[in-house]
Write a sequence for this structure.
């Protein structure tokens, strides 16, 4: 049934330039500007990516608008079939996609597979679009009058995604947007752009009509063009907080529906009655998985004084077993995304030490199982980090786990709630009452109870509070279908002569 040539075409060759994908095919656009795409494990440029002009974005939006005109009329059953077919293709060829993720992002292959699996979960959820786009019907709301609602697609929707999940985050949005009948223009991160083209080819193979899913690559120029374009109805953004705020403000000013997910600083509160081995495992997994480049990474452990020494010891013990290196070699942790980011992350270790923190495990300059030119920082553990330090207050987005010692629950809660971000958090305890208090009192969007990375399953929605989410719609789940559809309420009366007559008063129900 499937023609493999399209996907092979999309899988980037060593010297390839990554084109845009518009109207069902690779497209060069009109710009001379390009960006470097690195293999972070080698520290070397492996290909270039095109940077779109505003005119390129206009073209993609026009193609999407034309495609939308017929896609919105395609039946629910047929749209479901396309989503099912896409799911089958990705599942069958996930090794190919994982290789692309590892080569451009650096995350280890096992983690790349985890990313794909969590993205596919949302594709599977989107397959249930028949149930999720249903309206409601009230018969005889007034005598002889029925009122009902229906949900319709918005039109052309824009998606702007970050480097750290080049497959999963686009899937969070485009699967629901497409299933709901919209046409998409995706602007992926310029740092690891190839996964988007691979998925575009897979969607085409799944039977999605040309032009319903388009990819424009680039930087701020492309983002601004999407934000300002009058035919783009909504923007779904994921990235750092300053850009999320900018995207939210600019997009809403241009009259669009915007959801903009931002950065994070996720705390894990460990109470004295917790299982310390479980807590130490969780801190290491959630602190160093994907080299800490996850918005749901744990970056701060709040340890109650009485167990802090024991917990730090257990975490350090486990860190000694981690192998950092090339993601294709079965290592636990890969490199950071760029040389500049590596230097920034390493700089925070200096800052913390200068502010009085103890560097328990120093990942700078570690031996790696990989090319010495890769962008390496090994797992790093800081203890007694002052809460005034930038290393505590700011998002580091690297493999640096800070321990802050606290007196007890109240202290920990206050620290979490006084932070700028509210993405994820976790409590480790065997006291159900404490856990229940925590879920009521903590001002964070996603909470784990003895679970370190509480990314909700696809049929709930994903999103934080405060500086971690601008707008009121979270990603995927029920929020996803609401975001990508507009509701109409219809009040209808079929002719009944007894209800005729002139009445200029405001309609009342009889
Ligand atoms: P980023 O903000 O640098 O980039 C995100 C997107 O915005 C990219 O497509 C990029 O090209 C574009 N962009 C960058 N600078 C821009 C500018 N000045 N104007 C317009 N567009 C611009 O983020 P990143 O470094 O790719 O990703 C890491 C960040 O994303 C972290 O802060 C992380 O916490 C956050 N993140 C959040 C979530 C979440 O769900 N809350 C999920 C993943 C990542």
């Amino acid at each position: 049934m499937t023609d493999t040539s399209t996907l092979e075409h999309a899988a980037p060759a060593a010297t390839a330039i990554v084109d845009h994908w518009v109207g069902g095919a690779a497209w060069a656009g009109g710009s001379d500007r390009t960006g470097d795409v690195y293999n972070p494990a080698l520290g070397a440029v492996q290909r270039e990516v095109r940077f779109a002009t505003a005119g390129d974005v206009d073209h993609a939006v026009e193609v999407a608008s034309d495609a939308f005109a017929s896609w919105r009329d395609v039946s629910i059953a047929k749209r479901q079939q396309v989503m099912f077919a896409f799911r089958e293709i990705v599942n069958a060829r996930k090794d190919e996609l994982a290789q692309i993720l590892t080569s451009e992002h650096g995350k280890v292959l096992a983690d790349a597979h985890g990313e794909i699996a969590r993205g596919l979960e949302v594709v599977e959820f989107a397959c249930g679009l028949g149930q999720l786009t249903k309206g409601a019907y009230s018969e005889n709301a007034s005598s002889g009058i029925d009122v009902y609602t229906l949900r319709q697609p918005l039109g052309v929707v824009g998606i702007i995604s970050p480097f750290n999940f080049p497959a999963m985050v686009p899937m969070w949005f485009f699967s629901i947007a497409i299933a709901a009948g919209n046409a998409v223009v995706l602007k992926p991160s310029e740092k690891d752009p190839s996964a988007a083209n691979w998925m575009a080819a897979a969607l085409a193979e799944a039977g999605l009509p040309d032009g319903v899913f388009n990819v424009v690559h680039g930087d701020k120029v492309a983002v601004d063009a999407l934000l300002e374009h009058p035919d783009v109805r909504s923007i779904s953004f994921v990235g750092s907080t300053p850009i999320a705020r900018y995207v939210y403000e600019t997009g809403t000013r241009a009259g669009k529906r915007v959801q903009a997910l931002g950065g994070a600083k996720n705390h894990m509160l460990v109470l004295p009655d917790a299982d310390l081995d479980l807590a130490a495992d969780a801190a290491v997994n959630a602190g160093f998985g994907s080299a800490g480049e996850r918005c749901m990474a744990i970056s701060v452990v709040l340890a109650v004084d009485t167990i802090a020494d024991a917990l730090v010891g257990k975490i350090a013990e486990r860190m000694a077993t981690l192998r950092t290196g090339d993601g294709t070699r079965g290592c636990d942790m890969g490199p950071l995304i760029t040389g500049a980011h590596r230097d920034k992350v390493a700089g925070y270790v200096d800052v913390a030490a200068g502010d009085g923190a103890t560097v328990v495990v120093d990942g700078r300059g570690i031996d790696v199982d990989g090319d010495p030119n890769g962008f390496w920082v090994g797992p790093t553990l800081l203890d007694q980090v002052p809460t005034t330090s930038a290393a505590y207050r700011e998002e580091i987005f690297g493999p640096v786990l800070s321990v802050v010692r606290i007196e007890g629950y109240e202290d920990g809660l206050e620290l979490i709630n006084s932070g700028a971000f509210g993405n994820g958090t976790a409590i480790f305890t065997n006291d159900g009452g404490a856990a229940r208090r925590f879920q009521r009192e903590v001002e964070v969007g996603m909470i784990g109870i003895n679970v370190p990375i509480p990314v909700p399953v696809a049929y709930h929605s994903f999103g934080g509070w405060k500086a971690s989410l601008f707008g009121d719609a979270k990603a995927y789940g029920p929020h996803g279908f609401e975001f990508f559809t507009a509701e109409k309420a219809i009040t209808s009366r079929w002719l009944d002569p007894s209800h005729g007559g002139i009445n200029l008063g405001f309609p009342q129900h009889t």
